[in-house]
Design brief:
The chain has helices at residues 49-57, 66-83, 86-91, 111-119, 149-155, 181-193; strands spanning 14-15, 32-40, 93-96, 124-125, 129-131, 156-158, 170-177, 199-208. By secondary structure, it is an alpha/beta fold. Strands 1-2-8-7-3-4 form a 6-stranded mixed beta sheet. A two-stranded antiparallel ribbon has the order 5-6.
């Protein structure tokens, strides 16, 4: 079981199911994903605590405000330490979603790996999947087409030096679940390499859209 204890502030992991899967069209019934918060698309950093958190985490390595980014990374590690099952953490493998930049790129951002390692010492965190070539980050594409699952898979590769011992269960870790494209691409690559291993998705937040107010129609 991937769930752990609920925090005193009523922060808990929520599972993607039939009641909320419609906002994540790439996910199917066999995709087991959980998230902590909801990020509202199209809103500024000060719209909600979660929007501020995600905006801070996405600051590029060369941008100002790294002190605050580091604080949020530690905060996320603490949250997942409490909300993830201790039993699962002791046996599972965390695989951070590859960032948009490839290894060696000056803009390479390892925030997902850092959050995983901040959960607690000695976790099995492996960068099993990486990108061959740098790409434009999804949240920076504007109206440009987003990459397809097939295009992402073409750019992904498995680091065979990290495949032993074979994981018994895997959780793909990312900051925001949007359509689910990157998750499905990484899951496909990992499933091909480890066909018998259960694979989950863990997200800091899922994307939602702001409610339309009636007065906005006039």
């Amino acid at each position: 079981m991937i769930f752990g204890a609920h925090l005193a502030e009523n922060i808990r992991l929520t599972e993607i199911d039939d009641s909320n899967r419609d906002l994540h069209p790439r996910l199917t019934l066999d995709d087991k994903c959980v998230f902590l918060f909801e990020y509202t698309s199209g809103k500024r950093w000060d719209f909600s605590t979660t929007n501020g958190l995600i905006k801070t985490l996405k600051r590029k390595p060369d941008q100002k405000g790294q002190y605050y980014k580091n604080q949020e990374i530690e905060k996320c590690g603490n949250l997942f330490r409490t909300t993830l099952s201790d039993e699962w953490l002791s046996s599972g493998t965390l695989v951070p979603i590859p960032p948009s930049k490839a290894f060696g790129d000056p803009a390479y951002d390892n925030r997902m790996e850092r959050i995983c390692r901040a959960i607690r010492p000695n976790l099995d965190v492996r960068l099993l999947v990486s990108q061959r070539n740098s790409t434009i980050a999804a949240h920076e594409r504007g109206t440009a087409p987003r990459p397809t699952i097939e295009e992402l898979i073409e750019n992904y590769e498995i680091d065979e030096t990290l495949t032993h011992p074979a994981p018994s269960t895997i959780a793909i870790f990312d900051d925001v679940l949007t359509a689910g494209t990157h998750f499905k691409a990484v899951k496909t690559v990992l499933s091909a390499r480890f066909p018998a291993v259960p694979i989950y998705g863990i997200f800091i937040a899922r994307r939602v859209f702001p409610e339309v107010q009636i007065e906005d129609w006039f």
